[in-house]
Design brief:
Length: about 240
C-alpha cells in the first residue's frame, strides 16, 4: 500500500504542486500554507534561495515577492531544480550573496542542522532573512533520513547560537491537524486515479474535514501546546 500512496502523492504533486490547491489536501498542509503565506510579503525579498526545494512547491509562492529565485536540493527531485548541493555545506553559494533563505521541512532530515544554520548565516547578506519551517509533530517519513523534531526553544537556541537575531517564532497547526493529516491524505489519494471523482473527494475532504479540523484546533488552542509545525524568522 505504501508504494501505491507514494505514487499517487507524486502524481498529485506533479498535477497541483504549482497551485494553491496543493496545500488544501489536509489540515496539516493547509495550516502550514496559511501560516507561511501571511509572512511572505513581510520577509521574502531580493535574491531568494529555496534550500531543500524538493518538488518546487514553494516556488509559486516565493516568486510573487522576490526579484530572483534559486532552488537547491540534495538531488533533482524536479528537473527544474537549479542547484544540487547539501544545505549543510552550501558549497556552491558564495558568502553574503543571498537576501532571503527559505527552507521548509528540511532541518529534520539532516544529521547536522547546526551546520546548515551556520551556512545559511554565511550566505546571507547583512540584514538578510532566514525563513525556516520544521515539524514538532510528525510521523516518520523519508526514512532513514528522519533525524529530529523541534520545539520553539530549540529553534531559538539553534539560530541565536549562530549569530541570528530571532524576529519571530510561530506555531502552525495543532494536534487534530496532525491526527487527521493521514486520514485526509488517504481519502484523497485513494481516489486520485479516477477522473472527476478525484475532485469530488478532494473538495468533500476540504469542506468536511480540513476546514472543520482547522477551526476546532484554533478554538481549542491546541496549536499552543501541541503545535504541528513551527516557523522561525531570523535576521543576520
Amino acid at each position: 500500500m505504501v508504494p501505491y500512496f507514494t505514487k499517487q502523492r507524486n502524481k498529485f504533486a506533479n498535477a497541483c504542486g504549482h497551485l494553491d490547491v496543493y496545500w488544501k489536501i489536509s489540515p496539516l498542509t493547509y495550516t502550514n500554507f496559511n501560516g507561511i503565506k501571511s509572512e511572505l510579503p513581510k520577509y521574502i525579498k531580493g535574491r531568494v534561495l529555496d534550500a531543500g526545494a524538493g518538488d518546487l512547491t514553494a516556488k509559486p509562492l516565493l516568486t510573487r515577492f522576490c526579484e530572483s529565485y534559486f532552488s537547491l536540493d540534495i538531488e533533482k527531485r524536479n528537473v527544474d531544480v537549479d542547484i544540487v548541493d547539501d544545505i549543510q555545506t552550501l558549497s556552491t553559494i558564495i558568502d553574503n550573496s543571498i537576501d532571503t533563505v527559505y527552507s521548509s521541512q528540511v532541518l529534520e532530515h539532516i544529521p547536522t542542522p547546526w551546520n546548515a544554520v551556520k551556512q545559511i548565516y554565511r550566505v546571507l547578506r547583512k540584514d538578510g532573512i532566514a525563513m525556516v519551517t520544521v515539524p514538532h509533530l510528525s510521523a516518520l517519513h523519508e526514512e532513514p533520513y528522519d533525524f529530529y523534531r523541534y520545539t520553539p526553544y530549540s529553534l531559538d537556541y539553534l539560530f541565536s547560537n549562530e549569530g541570528f537575531q530571532v524576529i519571530k517564532i510561530k506555531k502552525m497547526g495543532g494536534l487534530l491537524s496532525f491526527v487527521f493529516h493521514p486520514i485526509s491524505m488517504f481519502l484523497v489519494l485513494i481516489f486520485w486515479p479516477i477522473p472527476v471523482i478525484r475532485w469530488v473527494m478532494f473538495y468533500a475532504n476540504f469542506f468536511l474535514i480540513v476546514l472543520p479540523i482547522v477551526y476546532i484546533d484554533k478554538v481549542l488552542r491546541l496549536d499552543k501546546r501541541f503545535p504541528a509545525n513551527i516557523l522561525i524568522v531570523a535576521k543576520k
